[in-house]
Specification:
Pfam families: ADH_zinc_N (PF00107). By secondary structure, the protein is α/β, with parallel strands linked by helices. The protein has eleven helices and eight strands. It is globular and about 60 Å long. The mean pLDDT is 92.
């Protein structure tokens, strides 16, 4: 029977997952040396999305200046973390001064990190972004994380702050069409592209960063990780509705192992 089956389906027919989409985690390293609890590893996919934007789409290099906006959400926040980890200068945009201050405190005020409150006035916001860049020369990469309920509120100001050969990566869920400053894009040779998630080589690179302690995730990285048993799933949903945000994660653990 097995011989007959293997002759027709040489790669097997009983797999639950495609191996090319599976990545082996080093359990001894992650849970042993780095002391990650299992629940902390559940946040890795958020970093995959950010890695697709910065490592894959933008080809971000150490020393470059990047702007992330809005930076207060889970995806924008993880993008900030990842950009700092790979050696970039990072400017976080947001409308809530208090949230930006808390982000800086949570990240322990790294020297390559600044926050810029947005006003919604394009010229004012562009000037504020440029003022925060090294030598006021402009931005190499802008990563937009506009939420799905709004139009990209910072895109125009960020595009005007890009240097020659600047890259704008759209990774959010913004609604509707956007206007691009045509002449500016042509004269500065700008690249504007969308990006969601990443390919296997980028995942492997991200896992190397986590395995080597360059990127710290979950509780070791300063996050709050709250766990629930499977039978408490309704409580978990209520909890995430009230507390879900950057560095505040809710994880359901079916086997009650945190």
């Amino acid at each position: 029977m097995w011989i007959q089956l293997s002759s027709r389906a040489r790669d097997g027919s009983l797999q639950q997952f495609q191996l090319e989409n599976c990545f082996l985690l080093d359990d001894m390293l992650l849970r042993g040396d780095l002391k990650y609890e299992t629940a902390n590893l559940a946040v890795i996919p958020f970093y995959m999305v950010a890695a697709g934007a910065f490592i894959e789409a933008a080809n971000l290099k150490a020393g470059e200046t990047v702007v992330v906006g809005p930076a207060g959400g889970t995806f924008g926040g993880t993008a900030v973390e990842l950009a700092l980890a790979v050696g970039a200068n990072v400017i976080a945009l947001g409308r809530d001064d208090g949230r930006l201050v808390k982000m800086e405190e949570n990240l322990r005020s790294p020297p390559r990190f600044q926050t810029v409150p947005m006003t919604g006035i394009v010229n004012t916001d562009t000037a504020a972004i440029l003022e925060a860049t090294p030598l006021k020369l402009g931005v190499d990469v802008y990563n937009d994380w506009a939420p799905g309920t709004t139009k990209p509120m910072y895109l125009e100001a960020a595009l005007h702050s890009l240097k020659d050969d600047g890259r704008a990566i759209l990774s959010g869920g913004g609604e509707g069409a956007v206007e691009v400053p045509y002449a500016l894009a042509v004269l500065r040779n700008l690249t504007i592209r969308g990006k969601w998630m990443c390919k296997p080589p980028t995942i492997k690179l991200l896992m190397n960063l986590i395995n080597r302690g360059v990127v710290k995730i979950g509780r070791p990285g300063g996050a709050v990780v709250t766990t629930f048993d499977l039978e408490d799933s309704h409580a978990a949903i209520e909890h995430v509705a009230q507390h879900g945000r950057w560095r505040n994660y809710t994880v359901i653990c079916p086997n009650s192992s945190n």
